[in-house]
What we know:
binds coenzyme A; 5-stranded mixed beta sheet; globular; Aminopeptidase
Amino acid sequence: MIKIKIIKKAKELELAEVNSLISQMSLTKVSPKPMTLPEYRGMLNQKHFFFIAAAGKVSGNQEKILGILSVYFTRIPIGLIAWAEDLLVDAAYRKWGVGRLLMEAAIKLARRKKSRHLNLRTNPKRIEANKLYQALGFERMESNFYRINMFK
Ligand SMILES: CC(C)(COP(=O)(O)OP(=O)(O)OC[C@H]1O[C@@H](n2cnc3c(N)ncnc32)[C@H](O)[C@@H]1OP(=O)(O)O)[C@@H](O)C(=O)NCCC(=O)NCCS
């Protein structure tokens, strides 16, 4: 059975699982840097931030994190809006419905908080993700996405 939970407290063992998951995130060969425990704690302690995880017992009795999704809320002049970031399901457990469950939990949360939008961005190369979002009713918005890379 897959359980959806919001992680509030930073635990070292759980962080190891989260770090192993985020190493699968990048489309390039460069993996994101693993989080340290203080960084993880700092992330979880952010106000209006929700770290949603899907957990399940895949072998034996040990529960494992199968997927993650970050959601944060912010108040801007037009109202409260939400952003979903970094949906990721462990490559070994894809096509089990985990990604859908995580995003449905985010939609439910945004609805409960009376957020005006739930926004997300995704690379067009992420075929599975684009299919999932459209299946869940996300509309594709025309927009130019700009960024300054502060590390360059
Ligand atoms: C995108 C991702 C989260 C989907 O997770 P998942 O648990 O495998 O997805 P689900 O099993 O819940 O599938 C839900 C829907 O997604 C779409 N989908 C998922 N995998 C797919 C695939 N291989 N091909 C086509 N569509 C797919 C389908 O619409 C599917 O619905 P269906 O089963 O009724 O056809 C997962 O593939 C992943 O982690 N990818 C790498 C990271 C990523 O791209 N994240 C998104 C960043 S914005």
